[in-house]
Amino acid sequence: MTERFDCHHCEGSLFGKKYILREESPYCVACFEALYASTCEECGKPIGCDCKDLSYKDRHWHEACFHCSRCKSSLVDKPFAAKEDQLLCTDCYSHEYSSKCQECRKTIMPGTRKMEYKGSSWHETCFICHRCQQPIGTKSFIPKDGQNFCVPCYEKQYALQCVQCKKPITTGGVTYREQPWHRECFVCTACKKPLSGQCFTSRDEFAYCLNCFCDLYAKKCAGCTNPISGLGGTKYISFEERQWHNDCFNCKKCSLSLVGRGFLTERDDILCPDCGKDI
Fold first, then answer.
1. CA separation, residue 150 to residues 13, 120, 125, 126, 247 (Å)
2. What region, left, alpha or beta, does residue 190 occupy, with left being phi > 0 and alpha being psi -120 to 50 degrees?
3. Phi then psi for 266, rounded to 5 degrees?
4. Domains in the chain with CATH codes
5. What is d(CA 17, CA 36) in angstroms, rounded to the nearest whole number?
6. pLDDT band (50, 70, 90) for residue 1
7. Best exposed site among 76, 95, 113, 179 by fewest CB in 10 Å?
C-alpha cells in the first residue's frame, strides 16, 4: 500500500503537485499562501510563492509594487529613504525633505555625512575653516562674523595676546592698565600668587597682593611694628615721622587711647596728660 503524502492543513494529496515545507510539514500552495503569505503594503494582496517578497522593517511588497510614493519609479535595487511610513526615491526625498548645504547650496543627500550648527547644515567636505580652508570635521571651532574658524586660525587672527607670556587668550582673561593677561599669568610680582578676583595694589606699574605690598613698602606701626597698609580705609596717626595704627595709639603707661586727645612724648613713648604730668 502506497504511503500517503498530504497537505498538513487541508489534507489534500500532494502527489505530483507543488508544495512548500514549513517547520518540516508540507503544505499545498493554496493553503500555504492563505496561512503564511505576507500581505503587500501597496496593493493589499498576498505575496504568492511565485513572487519575490521585498521587505523593509517588517513590511512587505510585491516587486512590482515596491516603488516611490511620489514619482512611482521602482525602488528595486536602488537606494531609498523612508518618511512617515512612505518610501521615497532619493531624488524625491531630497526635493521635499533634505537640507541644503550652507556653503555650496546643494542638497545634502540622505545617508551623506553632514555637519549642523545653529540650524544650518553643511556637507562634511564643505564645513571648512574660513582662513586655512581645511575641513573642521569634529574638531573645535569658533564662529566669527558669519564665518567658522578652526581654533589655531582664530587665535592667529583675532585672539588677544597675553602681555606676560605672549600667547593667545582664548577664554576669560583680565585687563590691567589696558593690557590683556591670562588669569594664571596675572600674579603678584613678589610671591607669584594669582591676583585675579583678589584685592591688590601696584607700585611702579608692578602689581602686588596686599600682604606683599605691606611687607615691602608699607610703613611700620611704632606701637605693634606691623605694617600700616593705608588700604581699605585703614586709619592711622602720624607724628614726627612715626606712624601708629589708630588702635595702637595709646598711652604707654595706662593704655588709654590718645586718638583725638592731647598727649606728651617721653623719648620714644607717648603718654596721656595725666601720666605725663610728672615728667
1. 76, 18, 14, 14, 60
2. alpha
3. -135, 100
4. 234-279 (2.10.110.10)
5. 19
6. very low
7. 113
